Input
Amino acid sequence: MRKAGIAVTEMIPLSVPNFEGNEEAYVLNAVREGWVSTGGAYITEFEKRLAGFLNAPAAACQSGTSAIHLALLECGVCPGDSVIVPTLTFIAAVNPVRYQFAHPIFMDCDESLCMDPIKLKRFCEEECGQKDGRLYYKKTHSQIKAVIVVHVFGNMADMERIMDIADQYGLKVVEDATEALGTFYQEGRYKGKYAGTIGDYGAYSFNGNKIITTGGGGAVVARDDAHLEHMKYLSTQAKDDPHFYVHHEVGYNYRMTNVQAAIGAAQLEMLPEFIGRKKKNYETYRERLSGCQWGRLMGFRDGTDSNKWFYAFELLDDRISVRQAIEALLKQKIQTRAIWGLIHEQTPYRNDAAYQIEKAVMYRNRIINLPCSTHLTYREICYVAEQIERLDQGILEICPGEQKDRSNI
Ligand SMILES: *Cc1c(COP(=O)(O)O)cnc(C)c1O
Output
Protein backbone atom coordinates (compact mmCIF):
# COMPACT_ATOMS: atom_id res chain seq x y z
CA MET A 1 0.00 0.00 0.00
CA ARG A 2 2.81 2.37 0.84
CA LYS A 3 4.17 3.37 -2.50
CA ALA A 4 7.80 4.34 -2.79
CA GLY A 5 8.32 8.01 -2.08
CA ILE A 6 10.79 9.94 0.01
CA ALA A 7 12.38 7.60 2.55
CA VAL A 8 13.33 8.51 6.10
CA THR A 9 15.01 6.15 8.53
CA GLU A 10 14.81 8.04 11.82
CA MET A 11 11.71 9.13 13.70
CA ILE A 12 10.84 12.75 12.96
CA PRO A 13 10.08 14.24 16.38
CA LEU A 14 7.36 16.79 17.03
CA SER A 15 9.62 19.46 18.48
CA VAL A 16 13.13 19.27 19.90
CA PRO A 17 15.39 22.06 21.14
CA ASN A 18 18.20 23.47 19.03
CA PHE A 19 21.60 24.21 20.61
CA GLU A 20 23.64 25.26 17.59
CA GLY A 21 24.86 28.48 19.20
CA ASN A 22 26.89 29.51 22.25
CA GLU A 23 24.87 27.51 24.78
CA GLU A 24 27.70 25.17 25.84
CA ALA A 25 30.27 27.94 26.12
CA TYR A 26 28.05 30.17 28.25
CA VAL A 27 26.92 27.35 30.57
CA LEU A 28 30.52 26.22 31.05
CA ASN A 29 31.41 29.79 31.88
CA ALA A 30 28.65 30.08 34.47
CA VAL A 31 29.67 26.79 36.09
CA ARG A 32 33.40 27.61 36.10
CA GLU A 33 32.74 30.97 37.71
CA GLY A 34 30.52 29.33 40.32
CA TRP A 35 27.48 31.46 39.49
CA VAL A 36 24.83 28.80 39.08
CA SER A 37 21.93 29.98 41.20
CA THR A 38 19.55 32.94 41.38
CA GLY A 39 22.28 35.57 41.02
CA GLY A 40 24.82 36.17 38.27
CA ALA A 41 25.67 38.18 35.20
CA TYR A 42 23.81 35.99 32.72
CA ILE A 43 20.48 36.76 34.39
CA THR A 44 21.01 40.47 33.89
CA GLU A 45 22.32 39.89 30.39
CA PHE A 46 19.39 37.66 29.46
CA GLU A 47 16.90 40.23 30.74
CA LYS A 48 18.68 43.00 28.88
CA ARG A 49 18.65 41.08 25.60
CA LEU A 50 15.05 40.00 25.98
CA ALA A 51 14.00 43.56 26.78
CA GLY A 52 15.94 44.77 23.74
CA PHE A 53 14.17 42.28 21.51
CA LEU A 54 10.69 43.02 22.88
CA ASN A 55 11.24 46.71 23.32
CA ALA A 56 9.87 46.31 26.85
CA PRO A 57 11.59 45.66 30.19
CA ALA A 58 11.35 42.05 31.35
CA ALA A 59 11.98 40.01 34.52
CA ALA A 60 13.29 36.46 34.15
CA CYS A 61 11.67 33.75 36.24
CA GLN A 62 11.43 29.98 36.69
CA SER A 63 8.73 29.12 34.18
CA GLY A 64 5.92 30.46 32.08
CA THR A 65 3.55 29.23 34.78
CA SER A 66 5.31 31.27 37.47
CA ALA A 67 5.26 34.30 35.14
CA ILE A 68 1.47 33.99 34.83
CA HIS A 69 1.14 33.53 38.60
CA LEU A 70 3.21 36.67 39.26
CA ALA A 71 1.02 38.60 36.79
CA LEU A 72 -2.16 37.47 38.56
CA LEU A 73 -0.70 38.48 41.94
CA GLU A 74 0.06 41.87 40.45
CA CYS A 75 -3.50 42.15 39.11
CA GLY A 76 -4.64 41.75 42.71
CA VAL A 77 -6.43 38.45 42.08
CA CYS A 78 -7.48 37.22 45.53
CA PRO A 79 -9.36 34.18 46.88
CA GLY A 80 -12.96 34.29 45.67
CA ASP A 81 -12.28 36.54 42.66
CA SER A 82 -12.90 35.38 39.10
CA VAL A 83 -10.63 35.40 36.05
CA ILE A 84 -11.75 34.83 32.46
CA VAL A 85 -9.60 32.22 30.71
CA PRO A 86 -9.67 30.24 27.46
CA THR A 87 -10.70 26.58 27.55
CA LEU A 88 -8.66 25.59 24.49
CA THR A 89 -5.13 25.96 25.83
CA PHE A 90 -2.44 24.29 27.87
CA ILE A 91 -3.60 23.87 31.48
CA ALA A 92 -0.62 25.90 32.77
CA ALA A 93 -2.40 29.04 31.58
CA VAL A 94 -5.25 28.35 34.00
CA ASN A 95 -3.69 26.68 37.05
CA PRO A 96 -2.29 29.97 38.49
CA VAL A 97 -5.90 31.16 38.88
CA ARG A 98 -6.38 28.30 41.32
CA TYR A 99 -3.07 28.99 43.05
CA GLN A 100 -4.83 32.21 44.10
CA PHE A 101 -7.98 30.31 45.15
CA ALA A 102 -9.82 32.27 42.47
CA HIS A 103 -12.40 30.97 39.97
CA PRO A 104 -11.74 30.58 36.27
CA ILE A 105 -14.57 31.39 33.85
CA PHE A 106 -13.97 29.52 30.61
CA MET A 107 -14.35 31.24 27.26
CA ASP A 108 -14.57 29.85 23.71
CA CYS A 109 -12.08 30.40 20.88
CA ASP A 110 -12.57 31.83 17.40
CA GLU A 111 -11.08 30.63 14.09
CA SER A 112 -7.62 31.77 15.22
CA LEU A 113 -7.87 29.25 18.12
CA CYS A 114 -7.42 32.23 20.48
CA MET A 115 -10.13 33.75 22.70
CA ASP A 116 -13.29 34.80 20.86
CA PRO A 117 -13.72 38.55 21.49
CA ILE A 118 -17.36 38.53 20.38
CA LYS A 119 -18.29 35.98 23.02
CA LEU A 120 -16.11 37.74 25.59
CA LYS A 121 -18.07 40.94 25.00
CA ARG A 122 -21.43 39.19 25.04
CA PHE A 123 -20.47 37.50 28.30
CA CYS A 124 -19.57 40.82 29.92
CA GLU A 125 -22.76 42.42 28.61
CA GLU A 126 -25.22 39.69 29.46
CA GLU A 127 -23.80 37.67 32.32
CA CYS A 128 -22.09 40.39 34.33
CA GLY A 129 -22.96 43.53 36.19
CA GLN A 130 -20.94 46.62 37.05
CA LYS A 131 -20.85 48.25 40.46
CA ASP A 132 -18.45 51.04 41.54
CA GLY A 133 -16.42 50.44 38.38
CA ARG A 134 -16.06 46.75 39.21
CA LEU A 135 -17.23 43.91 37.05
CA TYR A 136 -18.93 41.01 38.76
CA TYR A 137 -20.37 37.70 37.58
CA LYS A 138 -24.12 37.82 38.24
CA LYS A 139 -24.41 34.12 39.03
CA THR A 140 -21.87 34.13 41.87
CA HIS A 141 -21.41 37.85 42.67
CA SER A 142 -17.68 37.24 42.40
CA GLN A 143 -15.60 40.13 41.11
CA ILE A 144 -13.92 39.48 37.74
CA LYS A 145 -10.51 41.07 37.95
CA ALA A 146 -8.67 39.90 34.86
CA VAL A 147 -8.70 38.03 31.58
CA ILE A 148 -5.90 35.71 30.48
CA VAL A 149 -5.46 35.76 26.72
CA VAL A 150 -3.34 33.02 25.14
CA HIS A 151 -1.65 33.56 21.78
CA VAL A 152 -2.14 29.97 20.66
CA PHE A 153 0.66 28.32 18.66
CA GLY A 154 2.23 31.73 17.97
CA ASN A 155 -0.92 33.17 16.48
CA MET A 156 -1.89 36.63 17.80
CA ALA A 157 -5.24 36.91 19.56
CA ASP A 158 -7.48 39.77 18.40
CA MET A 159 -5.88 42.26 20.79
CA GLU A 160 -7.58 45.40 19.45
CA ARG A 161 -11.02 44.07 20.30
CA ILE A 162 -9.94 42.41 23.52
CA MET A 163 -8.24 45.56 24.83
CA ASP A 164 -11.37 47.61 24.02
CA ILE A 165 -13.55 45.18 25.97
CA ALA A 166 -11.09 45.14 28.88
CA ASP A 167 -11.06 48.96 28.96
CA GLN A 168 -14.82 49.15 28.87
CA TYR A 169 -15.28 46.67 31.71
CA GLY A 170 -12.25 47.50 33.82
CA LEU A 171 -10.49 44.18 33.36
CA LYS A 172 -6.73 43.67 33.62
CA VAL A 173 -5.28 41.81 30.64
CA VAL A 174 -2.64 39.12 31.12
CA GLU A 175 -1.22 37.94 27.82
CA ASP A 176 0.04 34.39 27.85
CA ALA A 177 2.65 34.84 25.12
CA THR A 178 4.47 31.65 26.11
CA GLU A 179 4.05 30.33 22.56
CA ALA A 180 4.34 33.63 20.75
CA LEU A 181 7.75 35.15 21.46
CA GLY A 182 8.49 37.15 18.30
CA THR A 183 4.92 37.50 17.00
CA PHE A 184 3.98 41.14 16.35
CA TYR A 185 1.39 43.39 14.71
CA GLN A 186 2.32 44.69 11.27
CA GLU A 187 -0.58 47.10 11.06
CA GLY A 188 -3.38 48.69 13.06
CA ARG A 189 -3.36 50.30 16.48
CA TYR A 190 -0.61 48.03 17.81
CA LYS A 191 1.65 48.14 14.78
CA GLY A 192 5.17 47.07 15.79
CA LYS A 193 4.01 45.73 19.16
CA TYR A 194 5.00 42.22 20.20
CA ALA A 195 2.64 39.64 21.66
CA GLY A 196 2.93 40.02 25.43
CA THR A 197 3.62 43.76 25.38
CA ILE A 198 0.08 44.98 24.62
CA GLY A 199 -1.90 44.05 27.73
CA ASP A 200 -1.11 44.97 31.33
CA TYR A 201 1.16 41.93 31.71
CA GLY A 202 2.79 39.43 29.39
CA ALA A 203 4.22 36.00 30.18
CA TYR A 204 6.83 34.06 28.21
CA SER A 205 8.06 30.48 28.57
CA PHE A 206 11.43 28.97 27.75
CA ASN A 207 10.47 25.36 28.29
CA GLY A 208 12.12 22.72 26.10
CA ASN A 209 9.59 22.85 23.28
CA LYS A 210 9.18 26.63 23.03
CA ILE A 211 10.81 28.72 20.30
CA ILE A 212 13.79 29.33 22.56
CA THR A 213 14.55 27.34 25.69
CA THR A 214 16.45 27.67 28.95
CA GLY A 215 15.63 24.08 29.90
CA GLY A 216 12.85 25.45 32.01
CA GLY A 217 12.26 29.15 32.46
CA GLY A 218 10.05 32.12 31.84
CA ALA A 219 9.81 35.87 31.85
CA VAL A 220 7.22 38.47 32.64
CA VAL A 221 6.73 41.99 31.31
CA ALA A 222 4.51 44.77 32.62
CA ARG A 223 3.19 47.96 31.10
CA ASP A 224 4.10 49.72 34.32
CA ASP A 225 7.71 49.65 35.60
CA ALA A 226 6.71 49.71 39.27
CA HIS A 227 4.68 46.52 38.75
CA LEU A 228 7.62 44.84 37.05
CA GLU A 229 9.91 45.73 39.97
CA HIS A 230 7.34 44.40 42.39
CA MET A 231 7.09 41.08 40.53
CA LYS A 232 10.88 40.76 40.62
CA TYR A 233 10.72 41.38 44.35
CA LEU A 234 8.03 38.74 44.82
CA SER A 235 10.06 36.28 42.73
CA THR A 236 13.02 36.54 45.12
CA GLN A 237 11.19 35.76 48.39
CA ALA A 238 10.20 39.42 48.88
CA LYS A 239 13.41 40.30 50.68
CA ASP A 240 13.48 43.95 51.67
CA ASP A 241 17.01 44.54 52.86
CA PRO A 242 20.24 43.61 51.07
CA HIS A 243 21.93 42.52 54.32
CA PHE A 244 19.17 41.58 56.73
CA TYR A 245 16.29 39.16 56.38
CA VAL A 246 13.38 41.51 56.46
CA HIS A 247 10.17 40.59 54.61
CA HIS A 248 6.93 42.50 54.36
CA GLU A 249 5.15 40.19 51.95
CA VAL A 250 4.87 36.51 51.10
CA GLY A 251 7.38 35.92 48.34
CA TYR A 252 8.17 33.07 45.99
CA ASN A 253 11.24 31.26 44.77
CA TYR A 254 10.44 32.12 41.17
CA ARG A 255 13.67 33.75 39.97
CA MET A 256 15.54 32.29 37.00
CA THR A 257 18.95 30.79 37.73
CA ASN A 258 22.21 31.89 36.14
CA VAL A 259 22.66 28.50 34.42
CA GLN A 260 19.24 28.79 32.80
CA ALA A 261 20.00 32.38 31.81
CA ALA A 262 23.34 31.32 30.28
CA ILE A 263 21.46 28.98 27.94
CA GLY A 264 18.89 31.70 27.38
CA ALA A 265 21.44 34.36 26.45
CA ALA A 266 22.77 32.05 23.74
CA GLN A 267 19.28 31.11 22.58
CA LEU A 268 18.30 34.77 22.23
CA GLU A 269 21.23 35.23 19.84
CA MET A 270 19.59 32.54 17.70
CA LEU A 271 15.99 33.72 18.01
CA PRO A 272 15.77 35.64 14.70
CA GLU A 273 17.29 32.65 12.91
CA PHE A 274 14.85 30.23 14.60
CA ILE A 275 11.87 32.40 13.66
CA GLY A 276 13.15 32.51 10.07
CA ARG A 277 13.34 28.73 9.94
CA LYS A 278 9.91 28.26 11.49
CA LYS A 279 8.46 30.54 8.83
CA LYS A 280 10.29 28.89 5.99
CA ASN A 281 9.28 25.41 7.14
CA TYR A 282 5.70 26.56 7.47
CA GLU A 283 5.76 27.80 3.87
CA THR A 284 7.11 24.46 2.70
CA TYR A 285 4.33 22.63 4.51
CA ARG A 286 1.76 25.00 3.05
CA GLU A 287 2.99 24.50 -0.45
CA ARG A 288 3.25 20.75 -0.09
CA LEU A 289 -0.13 20.33 1.61
CA SER A 290 -2.07 22.69 -0.63
CA GLY A 291 -3.61 19.81 -2.57
CA CYS A 292 -4.59 17.76 0.47
CA GLN A 293 -8.18 16.56 0.14
CA TRP A 294 -8.98 15.65 3.69
CA GLY A 295 -7.45 18.39 5.81
CA ARG A 296 -5.79 21.77 5.78
CA LEU A 297 -2.88 23.56 7.37
CA MET A 298 -4.26 26.35 9.54
CA GLY A 299 -3.16 29.94 8.94
CA PHE A 300 -2.15 32.89 11.10
CA ARG A 301 -3.95 36.20 11.64
CA ASP A 302 -3.79 38.76 8.83
CA GLY A 303 -1.93 41.93 9.70
CA THR A 304 0.42 40.12 12.06
CA ASP A 305 3.85 38.61 11.61
CA SER A 306 3.72 35.33 13.52
CA ASN A 307 6.70 33.41 14.86
CA LYS A 308 4.92 30.33 13.42
CA TRP A 309 5.99 28.32 16.42
CA PHE A 310 3.58 25.38 16.00
CA TYR A 311 1.82 24.07 12.91
CA ALA A 312 -1.84 23.10 13.27
CA PHE A 313 -3.40 20.73 10.77
CA GLU A 314 -7.18 20.53 10.73
CA LEU A 315 -8.83 17.21 9.85
CA LEU A 316 -11.81 17.96 7.63
CA ASP A 317 -12.93 14.43 6.76
CA ASP A 318 -15.32 13.17 9.41
CA ARG A 319 -14.26 9.60 8.77
CA ILE A 320 -10.72 10.23 10.05
CA SER A 321 -10.17 10.85 13.76
CA VAL A 322 -7.30 12.58 15.48
CA ARG A 323 -6.30 9.29 17.09
CA GLN A 324 -6.24 7.46 13.76
CA ALA A 325 -4.18 10.19 12.15
CA ILE A 326 -1.64 10.26 15.00
CA GLU A 327 -1.28 6.48 15.03
CA ALA A 328 -1.04 6.14 11.26
CA LEU A 329 1.63 8.86 11.08
CA LEU A 330 3.57 7.29 13.93
CA LYS A 331 3.77 4.10 11.85
CA GLN A 332 5.47 6.20 9.18
CA LYS A 333 7.95 7.48 11.82
CA ILE A 334 6.31 10.86 12.18
CA GLN A 335 5.53 12.15 15.63
CA THR A 336 2.46 14.38 15.85
CA ARG A 337 0.18 15.24 18.74
CA ALA A 338 -3.43 16.10 19.47
CA ILE A 339 -4.34 19.63 20.43
CA TRP A 340 -5.09 19.96 24.17
CA GLY A 341 -8.16 18.61 25.89
CA LEU A 342 -10.52 21.39 26.94
CA ILE A 343 -9.65 22.72 30.38
CA HIS A 344 -13.25 23.13 31.57
CA GLU A 345 -13.65 19.37 31.12
CA GLN A 346 -10.58 18.47 33.18
CA THR A 347 -11.19 17.06 36.66
CA PRO A 348 -10.07 20.10 38.71
CA TYR A 349 -12.23 22.50 36.65
CA ARG A 350 -15.44 20.57 35.95
CA ASN A 351 -17.50 22.63 38.36
CA ASP A 352 -16.34 26.02 37.11
CA ALA A 353 -18.28 28.31 34.82
CA ALA A 354 -17.97 27.86 31.06
CA TYR A 355 -19.63 30.21 28.59
CA GLN A 356 -21.02 28.90 25.28
CA ILE A 357 -18.10 26.63 24.42
CA GLU A 358 -18.67 25.49 20.81
CA LYS A 359 -15.77 26.13 18.48
CA ALA A 360 -13.24 24.84 20.98
CA VAL A 361 -15.06 21.49 20.99
CA MET A 362 -14.91 21.32 17.22
CA TYR A 363 -11.22 22.19 17.01
CA ARG A 364 -10.33 19.84 19.86
CA ASN A 365 -11.78 17.04 17.74
CA ARG A 366 -9.99 18.06 14.57
CA ILE A 367 -6.46 19.37 15.16
CA ILE A 368 -3.12 17.65 15.15
CA ASN A 369 0.24 19.42 15.39
CA LEU A 370 2.93 18.59 12.86
CA PRO A 371 6.69 18.28 13.42
CA CYS A 372 8.10 21.80 13.75
CA SER A 373 11.69 21.63 15.07
CA THR A 374 14.05 24.25 13.68
CA HIS A 375 16.36 21.46 12.48
CA LEU A 376 13.76 20.03 10.09
CA THR A 377 15.13 19.53 6.60
CA TYR A 378 13.28 20.31 3.40
CA ARG A 379 13.26 16.60 2.62
CA GLU A 380 11.71 15.71 5.96
CA ILE A 381 8.93 18.24 5.53
CA CYS A 382 8.21 16.92 2.05
CA TYR A 383 8.08 13.42 3.49
CA VAL A 384 5.66 14.44 6.27
CA ALA A 385 3.43 16.26 3.78
CA GLU A 386 3.47 13.30 1.42
CA GLN A 387 2.46 10.90 4.20
CA ILE A 388 -0.31 13.23 5.35
CA GLU A 389 -1.67 13.66 1.86
CA ARG A 390 -2.27 9.99 1.36
CA LEU A 391 -3.10 9.11 4.92
CA ASP A 392 -6.81 9.00 4.16
CA GLN A 393 -6.28 6.17 1.68
CA GLY A 394 -4.43 4.09 4.27
CA ILE A 395 -6.87 4.70 7.11
CA LEU A 396 -9.98 4.19 5.05
CA GLU A 397 -8.55 1.03 3.54
CA ILE A 398 -7.72 -0.50 6.92
CA CYS A 399 -11.05 0.30 8.51
CA PRO A 400 -13.44 1.40 5.78
CA GLY A 401 -16.70 1.21 7.72
CA GLU A 402 -15.40 2.13 11.14
CA GLN A 403 -17.28 4.90 12.85
CA LYS A 404 -15.09 7.66 13.98
CA ASP A 405 -14.82 7.65 17.75
CA ARG A 406 -14.45 11.19 18.87
CA SER A 407 -15.58 10.77 22.42
CA ASN A 408 -12.38 9.12 23.42
CA ILE A 409 -9.56 11.41 22.34
C1 LIG B 1 4.25 26.35 27.75
C2 LIG B 1 3.02 27.02 28.14
C3 LIG B 1 2.82 27.53 29.43
C4 LIG B 1 3.71 27.25 30.61
O1 LIG B 1 5.03 27.49 30.48
P1 LIG B 1 6.04 26.68 31.44
O2 LIG B 1 7.32 27.38 31.20
O3 LIG B 1 6.04 25.27 30.96
O4 LIG B 1 5.57 26.81 32.83
C5 LIG B 1 1.67 28.26 29.70
N1 LIG B 1 0.75 28.46 28.74
C6 LIG B 1 0.88 27.96 27.51
C7 LIG B 1 -0.19 28.26 26.51
C8 LIG B 1 2.01 27.21 27.16
O5 LIG B 1 2.11 26.70 25.94
